[in-house]
Amino acid sequence: MVERGFVEADPGYLYGYGLFETINVQKGKMDFYQEHMERLIKSSRKIGLNFKRDPFKIEEDCNRLIRANRMKTGGLRITFSKGKRRNNLFITARENPYDNEAARKGIALTVSSYRRNEDSLLVSVKSDNYLENLLHLNRAQDRGFNEVIFLNSKGQLAEGSLSNLFFIKDNVVYTPADDCGLLPGIMRQKVVDLLNENTINCQKGHYSLDELLAADEVFVTNSLMEVMPVNRIDDRVFKVGLDTSLARIRTLYYRKWNENL
Ligand SMILES: Cc1ncc(COP(=O)(O)O)c(C=O)c1O
User: What is the pLDDT along the chain (261 residues), one digit of tens a residue?
Assistant: First the structure.
C-alpha cells in the first residue's frame, strides 16, 4: 500500500522495540506470574520502556483470557512494546507444544556454528527480536533436532534458542553463568533454588563444549517445557529415563510445584 505523506510509525512494530513473557498455564492457573511480571518490569527499565501498568490488572486480564478460552493447559504471552504515544500491551493464548512423551524420551539438541554476542544489549532480556534465534531453530528442526545450542564469542556455552542449558557430571549440576550471553530464565532460577534447597551441588560458571559433551546427563529448561531431558547433542547420546539423576530432580520439582504430575 502506498500513501502520500508521512506515516507516524510505531517503534514496536517497525523495530521490534518490545519485550514479551511466556507464562505456563496448568490446571487453568498461571505459574510464577509474579516472577514473570518482575522480569518484564526490570527488562522494560533496561531498554528504556516506560512500564506504567498495573500488574494486578494485567493478572486479571490474563485470568479472563484463560477463562474465555477454557484453558486448562497452555501458554499465555504478554507482549509489551513501544507505541507512538502510549506503549502497547497485549495478551495472547497458545497451546503448550511439549507433552509427557517428549519429557519421557528427551529431546535432541544440535550445536550452532553461530556465536552468541555476550555483550549484546539484547541477550539478557526477552525482547521481540527473536528472528536470529528462530532462524537457527528452524535450521536445526529441518535437520531433525528439537533445539539448538549457542556458544558465545569466547567459545563458552551460552543457552538454547528458547531454553537455558544445564548438565550433570559426577552428581554436580552446572549451568552457564549470567554473563555468558543468555536470558536468565525463570525456570532456570527455580531449578537452581530447588537444587540449593535439596543440597544438591549446583554451580554457575564458564564452560566449554567439551565439558558439555563429557557430561553424564543434560537438560534444558523454559517455562513451557519446565525441566526437559536431552537424549542427544548431535552424535553424542545421553542417558534419559527413570534411573537418572535428572529423574530424581524432576521428581523433586514436580513434588514442590506440581503435585499431580
Ligand atoms: C533464549 C531463551 N533463553 C531462555 C529461556 C527460558 O526462559 P524462561 O525459563 O523464563 O521461560 C527462553 C524462554 O523462552 C528463551 O527464549
Answer: 555 766 678 999 999 999 999 999 999 999 999 999 999 999 999 999 999 999 999 999 999 999 999 999 999 999 999 999 899 999 999 999 998 899 999 999 999 999 999 999 999 999 999 999 999 999 999 999 999 999 999 999 999 999 999 999 999 999 999 999 999 999 999 999 999 999 999 999 999 999 999 999 999 999 999 999 999 999 999 999 999 999 999 999 999 998 754
CA dihedral 38, 41, 45, 50 (to 10 degrees): -170
The CATH number of the structural domain formed by 11-94 is 3.30.470.10
- Span 100-257: which CATH code? 3.20.10.10
User: Could you tell me if the CB of 164 is within 6 A of ligand 1?
Assistant: yes
Packed helices 33-46 and 186-197: angle between N→C axes, nearest 10 degrees? 120
Report which protein residue has its CA nearest ligand 1's atom 13.
162
Dist. CA 87 → ligand 1 center (Å): 23
What is the residue with the minimal CA distance to atom 5 of ligand 1? Answer: 163
pTM recorded for the entire structure: 0.95
How many H-runs (helices) and E-runs (strands) does the chain carry?
Answer: 8, 13
Ligand 1 mean position, distance from CA 161 (Å): 8
Say yes or no: CB of residue 24 within 6 Å of ligand 1.
Answer: no
Are 24 and 224 spatial neighbours (Cβ–Cβ below 8 Å)? yes
Q: Would you kindly state where each structural domain of the chain is located, as residue ranges?
A: 11-94, 100-257
